[in-house]
Write a structure and sequence with these properties.
This protein has two domains: about 160 residues, Immunoglobulins (Immunoglobulin-like), CATH 2.60.40; about 55 residues, no CATH class. It has eight helices and eight strands.
Length: about 230
């Protein structure tokens, strides 16, 4: 009975892809949460793209800066075509073009606040009335929701870690320590960007700065040999 139930459930799961745009539908929006009524979720990337797996009985909604859209029934979405949506947000209020830049700490707090339900989610298994016989549907559904929420939470943690790396390994700092100029600086920022785990392995700022300076010197010589006219 349990095997048959799982086969039926998985057969009804579909994948929806698309892009979230701002009001003019010219620019993709990063950091938009894509949520399902069953607890699953995803976050749009830097280009506004997203992909999420949902049950056909679920509904889909989008949330940005605490404001959510209406819910779209998955059964009414054509899964063979991108499901794009434009949010009523002007490009001037997007984080990438704000005149007054926020601090990393403030952004991190607001990010946690935006996804509090996911970060604070705790598993609550309901296992009553079955007497150890058959399949406990409440327990099964609760476990699946917890698994989806945990996967979403891991995605959000990954985004936080990536933002932390960007905060630490920033262009003004690298330029000051290495003396590199664009376009060499741009290439170095991509090629030698440290991972979050690497940053955590540095015992202090001195080791971190030495990493940047030593590899910057190596890269500068390499760049000069490969681009002698620059």
């Amino acid at each position: 009975m349990l095997i048959a139930l799982r086969s039926l459930t998985y057969a009804q799961v579909v994948q929806i892809r698309g892009t979230v745009y701002e009001r003019t539908e010219r620019y993709g929006m990063a950091g938009v949460s894509v949520m399902s009524t069953s607890g699953g979720g995803a976050v749009t990337d830097s280009m506004g793209h997203y992909a999420i797996r949902l049950n056909v009985k679920d509904s889909l909604s989008f949330s940005y800066q605490g404001k959510a859209t209406m819910k779209f029934p998955v059964s009414e979405i054509n899964v063979n075509r991108p499901f794009d949506i434009g949010l009523h947000v002007d490009i001037k209020v997007l984080p990438t073009v704000e005149v007054q830049q926020k601090s990393y700490k403030q952004d991190s707090i607001e990010f946690r606040q935006e996804y509090r339900k996911v970060f604070d989610y705790s598993q609550d298994y309901i296992a009553t009335g079955m007497g150890g016989v058959g399949v406990n549907l409440d327990l099964l559904l609760s476990m699946r929701k917890a698994k989806r929420m945990e996967h979403f939470r891991q995605q959000l943690v990954g985004i936080e870690q990536d933002r932390y790396v960007t905060h630490r390994f920033n262009m003004p700092l690298v330029k000051k320590l290495t003396g590199l100029q664009s376009p060499a600086l741009d290439s170095f920022m991509v090629e030698y960007r440290p991972s979050y785990d690497m940053l955590m392995d540095f015992e202090n700022e001195y080791q971190f700065y030495e990493y940047i300076k030593s590899w910057g010197k190596y890269f500068a010589n390499k760049w000069q040999n490969e681009h002698p006219q620059q």
